[in-house]
Amino acid sequence: MLPGVSRLLPLLLALSLLPIVGACAQLGLTCRFTIAEGPPDGSLTEGDPLPSGLALIAGPADFDRSATKVGPDQSGGETIDFALKGDASARLSGYTAGHVGGYLVVAVDGTIVASPVVRDAIVDGRMTMSFSDTTTPGIAARAKECAA
């Protein structure tokens, strides 16, 4: 072996793994979706960090990944359909029933991707999040990447 090559092998191996790590992220293997109670004043918006003081409704393990789908909506934007499993569905139902007109926060990897107004109780643990042209491109792309 040439002198110095043995020191380069670990670096070359690490560099060769970068595309694999990127592919895992695109498959959602490192993404962490979270749903939390929103502040009463709706002061959190997309791109904000998820504050630690908000009550958690659903964490990463509460999402049914097999039921998460990305698709088009009727206005040319894109949607992500989510389904919660287990107790998280009941927590979402309870929170939304008691907070119609209030806010809910959806985050990916600790960054808020949506802070919608609760219009109705969500009793089945399923919700759809829409992204339009006004959504911050990086935020929408990350959410869609994680859901795919």
Structure in words:
There is one protein chain. Helices cover 30% and strands 22% of the residues. The protein is built from 3 helices and 7 strands; from the N terminus they run αββββαβββα. It has a 4-stranded antiparallel sheet with strand order 2-1-5-6. It has a 3-stranded antiparallel sheet with strand order 3-4-7, with helices on one face. The N terminus is likely disordered.
Task: Set out the fold topology.
Blueprint: H1 5-26, E1 33-37, E2 56-58, E3 69-72, E4 78-83, H2 87-98, E5 104-108, E6 111-114, E7 126-131, H3 137-147
Antiparallel strand pairs: 1-2, 1-5, 3-4, 4-7, 5-6
The helix count comes to 3
The biggest beta sheet, please?
A: 4 strands, antiparallel
Based on secondary structure, the structural category is: alpha+beta
What's the multimeric state? single chain
Low-confidence stretches: 1-29
Large-scale geometry: globular
Task: Give the distance, in angstroms, between the N- and C-terminal Cα atoms.
Answer: 44 Å
- The strand line-up of the biggest sheet is 2-1-5-6
**Order of H and E elements:** HEEEEHEEEH
Which range best describes the helical content: under 10%, 10-25%, 25-40%, 40-55%, 55-70% or over 70%?
25-40%
**Average of the residue pLDDT scores:** 74
Number of strands: 7
Rg is 19 Å
**Share of β-strand residues:** 15-25%
Keywords:
148 residues; alpha+beta; 3-stranded antiparallel beta sheet
